[in-house]
Design goal:
Blueprint: H1 3-33, H2 37-40, H3 45-53, H4 56-59, H5 68-77, H6 85-98, H7 105-121, H8 129-153, H9 158-186, H10 196-208, H11 212-219, H12 225-233, H13 242-260, H14 265-278, H15 282-288, H16 290-313
Amino acid sequence: MLSRTAENLFWLARYVERAEYLARTIEATLRVTALPNTYSGQGNEWDSALLTAGVAASFYTHYDEANEANVVEYLAFASTNSSSIRNCIEAARLNARSVRTALTGEMWATINSAWIELQETWSKGAKTREQLDGFLRFVQEASLRFDGSAYRTMLRNDAYWFSRLGVHLERADNTARILDVKYHLLLPEEEHVGGPLDYYQWSSILRSVSAQTAYHWVYRQTLKPWLIADLLILNDSLPRSLASCYGDLLRNLDQIGVAYGRQGPAQRHARGIRNRLEHSDMEDIFQRGLHEFIQEFLADNSRLGEIIAKQYLI
């Protein structure tokens, strides 16, 4: 496969995954801000949404205040934000068009129809909460259809493997960021861990990664921060956990290595991260510092993306 084709497939998958993640982040933040004032604390949730998305610095070059209207506009519709949902869908469609022959008909139809609906229905944004809810559902459903069509219809060849690398690299980054923001930054200093605000914020985090039901199935307990961290970091059975993402990343990298006849630095780096996750436990992670652990993971995950690009995509 040409490196340009592999790069387009890789970034197509990343942009679709990122759009869904941003939609889930906005949805979770709206849910927390809808709580009564008794539970909603000091109202720093929109700042946390920006931090989770990694765009806080660029946001404040365009806006003075992180309120609902400004943050939703920036994360969902702003052309000035390269990672907004609108720009992610447009970039995904551009990448898909470049590799049209490498996609199945179902995959192309899904991303192209999502782009058309974006132009025809959402070109002026969402003016009401009802419209915003509809937009967020549209983004999540488009992402799920695209992911499902890829899983159901693509040949298990290098096109599929590079696409899945994009999905799981982006998903791991997203899960780590949202967990780090909640644990390290979101709860106001005057609030007690285990209090009402803490409970509703952790619940919103689980909802944003579709893991609330999974949590109760696995642990059968009320929400506890260390168990939520265990689920999102170390539990292989949760598709969005760091361990699960790296199991999938390593499998797909190994498939590429076999197909191309050699292993390389990407396989070695991914295997090192996977091994560290396999040999970690939550007690050690919390003793060392969850924030420090996640920051190191984010750096390693970003480094893997760079290594993959250098090894295969340039």
